[in-house]
Amino acid sequence: MFSEGGDGVTIEYMQAEMPRLGKLSIRRAVPVITGQDGTEGLVREYCRRQWSKPRLSRHETPLVASRDERSCHLDGEVVRRLVVTLRPAGCGWGSKGGGCIMCGHYLASSGQMLDSHDLLSQWPRVIQELEEGQIPVLCVYNGGNILNPDEVDFNALIDLCRRLSAKPFFRRLVLESRPEYTQPHLIQALLDNLAPSQSIMLGVGIESANDAIRHLCLNKGLSWSDFKSVPHNSRCLQRFYCFFGAPFLTEAEMLTDTFDSILRFRQEQADDIHVESATIQRGTLLNRLWRNDSYDLPNLWSLVFLLRALPAGLFPYVSPFQHFPMPYKMPTTCGRCESSVVAAFDAYNRQQDPSCFDSLACPCLDSWALLLQETDPRPLEERIAATLGEANCALMPAAALASA
Fold first, then answer.
1. What is d(CA 396, CA 404) in angstroms, rounded to the nearest whole number?
2. What is the rounded distance in angstroms from the CA atom of residue 263 to the CA atom of residue 9?
3. What DSSP character marks residue 384?
């Protein structure tokens, strides 16, 4: 548990002015944890069963699965960035530990490493698009760990850096990977092939500052100490991803966890923070829980409250809910205010100013406020075992059932 103000005083309540409701105070709610007692293994077994399903297509997905232009903040300026998602080869953590509970990249993956021959034919189109728009930031993702040599041929990344180094308008390359693949010598090799004025930003899915929630609710297989190994210097920046909407938590507990995590990420001197809201994607354990009425996506008003309750400091970027592979269920409010709330998030991402939500108001805020009052006195481990049993007791491994 982590939640301290700038003066080191523990924050008991999250407070924010909300449209229609006025000043709202929400007591911080942290789930009771008694000890992991086999629950982590139970979650992992369920994730492995999702991971073992047949892929939707092995070769049909294009090598560059999606392109998207977004904005970001770079040295105090709002600039354009190009987001390129390569066809997933299959995340190394998925094959070893079952993958994250909410990640739907597996079904769209090919199961084959992306080699240099294939990728080298793709880079000219990417560079041309950057050049035509004079876009200074390129994000290259692969639905996994782009620095894992079993997923992407590292020589192809070296070639990309060489091409980018010749573009004076270009300033930053953003990559995503789990900490175990962010080896300092690999990062240095990439930096050596970029121009001295260019940098790398490493996006790392910490998701939560709470080890128990990261292990038990998300199946990340990583502890906080694992992130200490990620390189961090003036040319290798860090972006921390924070998951918004972990299962097995009440709405207030989910809000508390995200609030605490952002404050912890700030304390750790993160250069960038992205809040990744839960969505429902095919082939995930989160999908199974949702279909079994054992999980609800977070309400967008909770995200509005979170941003307005945060003390001054580095404000997070809120990732859009439409991404590859395309989810079929996204967080929302009610049909009357959804479009205006989503538009306010777009404005917030450009301005990094929570006042973008000032003009919003809707009667559905009343039902959201009631949602925040819901509690669950059961220890987290008990909730998880009960929820997974309800989801599909027949498929529960016998050994895991006994340990639960």
1. 10
2. 13
3. H
Residue 38, domain member (yes or no): yes
Q: What is the CATH number of the domain that holds 159?
A: 3.20.20
pLDDT tens sequence across 349-391: 999 999 999 999 999 999 999 999 999 999 999 999 999 988 7
pLDDT in tens, 114-148: 888 889 989 999 999 999 999 999 999 999 999 99
Tell me the C-alpha distance between 327 and 14, whole Å: 30
Rounded-to-integer distance, Cα 15 and Cα 177, Å = 34
Q: What is the DSSP letter of 403?
A: H
State the pLDDT at residue 2. 52
- Domain count of the fold of the chain: 1
What is the DSSP track for 253-322?
Answer: HHHHHHHHHHHHHHHTT-SEEEEEE--B-TT-HHHHHHHTTS--PPPHHHHHHHHHHSPSS-PPEE--S-
Does residue 5 belong to any structural domain of this protein?
no
Which amino acid type is present at position 134?
Answer: Q
Alpha-carbon Rg for the chain, nearest whole angstrom, is 21
Question: How far apart are the C-alpha atoms of 384 and 380, rounded to whole Å?
Answer: 6
Residue 343 within any structural domain of the chain: yes
CA nearest 140: which of 209, 199, 54, 64? 64
- Neighbouring CB atoms inside 10 A of 365's CB total 22
> Does any domain span residue 74?
yes
Measured torsion, CA atoms of residues 155, 156, 162, 164, in degrees rounded to the nearest 10: -150
Q: What is the span of the domain harbouring residue 77?
A: 18-403
Secondary structure class of 231 (helix, strand, coil): coil
Residue 175 phi/psi, 5-degree rounding, is -130, 155
Q: Examine the pLDDT at 393 and tell me if it is beyond 60.
A: no
How far is residue 151's CA from residue 242's CA, in Å, rounded to a whole number?
24
Query: Is residue 194 a contact partner of residue 161, using CB atoms and an 8 Å limit?
Result: yes
pTM, entire model: 0.93
Per-residue pLDDT band at 5 (split at 50, 70, 90)? low
| Mean pLDDT estimate for the chain | 91
- 66: burial class by Cβ within 10 Å (0-12, 13-18, 19+)? middle
In sequence order, which ranges of 39-122 are alpha helices (DSSP H)? Answer: 39-51, 92-97, 116-120
pLDDT 10s digits, 286-324: 999 999 999 999 999 999 999 999 999 999 999 988 777
